[in-house]
Amino acid sequence: MKLKLLKVRDFRQFRGEQSLEISCPRSTSRGVLTLVHGEMGHGKTTLLNAFRWCLHGRSGISDRFSGPAEIINSHVLEFDDNARAEVHLHFEHDGEPIELKRSLTKVQQLSTRKDDYDGHLVLTVTSALTGSTLIHEGDAAQDYVNAIMPQAICELLFFDGEGINKLATKDENPKMGESVRTLLGLKLVESAIKILGGNVLVTLRKDDRESSTGDNRQFKDLRDKKYAELLQINDKKAIDERERAALLVEIEAYAADLKRKAGAKALQVVRENAESRMAEAQKVFLHNEDKLKKLISEKGYVLFSSKLIADGLEITSNLRKDRKIPAPIMTDFIKELIVAQKCICGGSLKPGGLEHDSVSSLLNVAKDAKFHDAAASLERTIGSIRNVLAGTRKEFSDLIELCVVKRAEIVQSRLAIDKVAEQLDALGDPDIDAIERNKAQAEEKRIRLERILAASDRDIYILGEGIADLDRKIKEAMKKSAGNSYAAERVALVEEALIELKETLRRDTDSILPELEKMVNESFSRMVEIPGRVRLTSTPSKKEDEIHIHVSLETQIADGLWREDNANTGKRQCLSLAFISSLVGYAKKRSENTAGFMKAVSGDSYPMVMDAPFANLDPAAKKRFAPQLGGLATQVIAMLNSNHYDEEFEKGLETAPGIVGQRYVLVHHYRKLPDHGLRSIRIAGKDHPIMQLDEGLGYEWSEIRKIS
What we know:
The protein is α/β, with parallel strands linked by helices. Among the domains are: 2-149 and 606-707, Rossmann fold, CATH 3.40.50.300; 296-422. It is built from 18 helices and 18 strands. The strands form four sheets. Strands 3, 8, 12, 13, 14, 17 and 18 form a seven-stranded mixed sheet that branches. Strands 2-1-4-5-6-7 form a six-stranded antiparallel sheet, covered by helices on one side. The protein has a three-stranded antiparallel sheet with strand order 9-10-11, sandwiched between helices. A hairpin with a 4-residue loop joins strand 5 and strand 6 (114-126). Helix 7 (186-210) runs antiparallel to helix 15 (485-527), helix 9 runs antiparallel to helix 13 (369-426) and helix 17 runs parallel beside helix 18. It starts with a strand and ends with a strand.
């Protein structure tokens, strides 16, 4: 989404038509700023709400501006029976120019003599290919907007300084989790899963069953029953996994609490090291135990066949000694001599003669070719088995030895952990005892959940095998009756799509936080002199599609030891800005690096509109922060008053040439100039008036004035 122009007409204190041209970057590698300068009451917050109102109507703006009388300019509303407020927003999406116009008109009810208000929304899209226009109105227009800029994203990216501070607090923020998932395209994937796995799949399966006959219908009924059971187990597993994740967060919090206790800090570090060693040893042990089981399953016969191999080798050796193998003379050759009654030397082999009897006796020694081949094969097989036996014995021995070593490490680590528990108990601190008790209870719940999850995995595997078997039977039955193949194919395609979407959602969800956390830390370190470490943690909700995200700042208090920093307001603002900008950058990165269907659900490039985003920063921080503004998003619109903007801030901007595009000043027109307040504001070395006297006008209003 690329913003082009904002126009307001008779919107709150803005009288007549006022325009704000928004700077666009020349390249995607660097953002550009549109700066709007003005004092309190001159319309900065109004401009922010103009964006949000145009995009999402009353639900998009703060409560104090939600009433119709708070939207239309008060002077126009009082004296014009057809008073009307309008906001036009021109922007581009996927290369197509779009104009969005929202209006609110006063309508007099003659019967009641009361005013009513008629809201209207029109969206015009111009095709980038043909130049033709397509117009949407009302709900259709709003649906189009929601697809481009969902309200959850709008609330995150179009913000004021007060609202942004709420992001970096100790309180969980469910809305932020929703915004993250929406911004990165995950909500759309979730919606697709719900739709496909709901009515679509139910309808297709019904059609499939109705078109089936005989055994095939029974197979499908049974498969659907098993599939429904599988879904139920999967849903239960998802809840259990979220509970396990929450318990892990809780256990980690108890560990952090212990580290804050003077007497327990060192002991807790020792325990964590022991737990880490034990976890690693368990991982290696289980891996090698699985290899051992596989070895016994595949080659166990070899280990238990050593005596048979020895006996076989002895037998073949004795046969060789007796010259029975390999055969010195072939049976067929001797028989041919006897039949011919003539020896190869030319002598007679007539029956009854001494020569005949002598040659015939050779049949007792001779063996046929089949026996010879069999004997040779036996020797080769025994030799091969003997070689396998040697290798298998070594592999078996090595695995046994490694398992024994790792089992010993697990035992030693467990003893160390138990010793720490005894030492903590000996301290006699009630707070430590309470933390230990709560931690132990959480660990017990986690272990119980691990068993339940293991059982769920086993049930899922069994059901999956049963479904696969029934699918094979269904396909065999379909070959006999091809009439219902189309319905079955549709079911199979939807099921495959669901599997792929769920895997994509799981993979993306698992990868987002670590990558995002890295980006937030990089951004935050550029804003703050002593940054600390930013942590992003997620707390799953009992609702399947909801996740709470906590943004926190930690300070290092010792080597490898961190604690949550009770950050001041300025730090929280920087932290929140770093989080939002990283989120926008990550969404843009996902969009650029994704192709095909997933490109449509992998996020987009978004602008940021900020009202007083760094009011609580000190001058030095503002100077450091100023050059970073262009890196927050490809487009940044910032509303600043004299408290937010000073010479140090301008010096910071000068260190990033080309970062500033358009500049505006909000000039307020007075019937009578007040005795207090700034008459002008100095911007980039020049003074610009921000108050103007309009004697005899009868009302006050604000003007958006472009400055060079």
